[in-house]
Amino acid sequence: MTSTTQTEHxxxxxxxxxCDDLTVQVSEGRIVNVTAACPIGxxxxxxxxxxxxxxxxxxxxxLSDAIADAARTLTEAAGRCLVYLGTxxxxxxxxxxxxxxxxxxxxxxxxxxxxxxxxxxxxxxxGRAAATLGEIRNRADAxxxxxxxxxxxxxxxAAQCGLNVGEMQPTRIxxxxxxxxxxxxxxxxxxxxxxxxxxxxxxxxxxxxFMRASVLGxxxxx
Length: 222
Prior knowledge:
The chain is 34% helix and 21% strand. The strands form 4 sheets. It has a 3-stranded antiparallel β-sheet, with no helix packed on it. The chain has a 3-stranded parallel β-sheet with strand order 8-9-10, with no helix packed on it. The protein has a two-stranded antiparallel sheet with strand order 4-5. It has helices spanning 39-45, 63-76, 91-104, 113-126, 133-139, 150-153, 157-160, 204-215, and strands spanning 4-10, 22-27, 30-35, 55-56, 59-60, 82-84, 107-109, 142-146, 178-184, 195-199. It is extended and about 65 Å long. By secondary structure, the chain is of the alpha/beta class. The longest helix has 14 residues, at 63-76.
């Protein structure tokens, strides 16, 4: 008889919402059902099994042969290597990768090198504002969606922040909240917003500049 185990309060990292109310059922080492998950979450969790196929030159290979082949290629390219670190690796993996880079006299890059540095400088000079989903739900008087449709990118965001009832329709559950949506070219925005503005991509920077000037109380000219 097959036994099924159930784990509650599972966190999904399929998008930025970080929903932590999922319930996962596992049978025979595979996920067979997930409740409260959106389509993105179901895809992210999958069946819980990590693929174990090892390919070498497009053909099935043993793990030891594949590692030996990779090591030989790296050794031959010592001094001419670039080690590129992904965003979803843990500290132990980073440490091992840096040790390999050191041995190979390689350059190390990450996908956030320049962006992270620019972000840190901006935060030091201008400050940085952030909020939890709970703060948005309970305190926000106005919410602006800029070039993103949460129904597609963050399917459960609207429900978690108290913005929708039924079909993504904004509602005021705390106070007279205003929902503003800005679409940029083919990047749509939230449907049913109180105010919707559609811009061409080349108009985005100009619009942001005008908005900033208006907030600061400065006059603007078209």
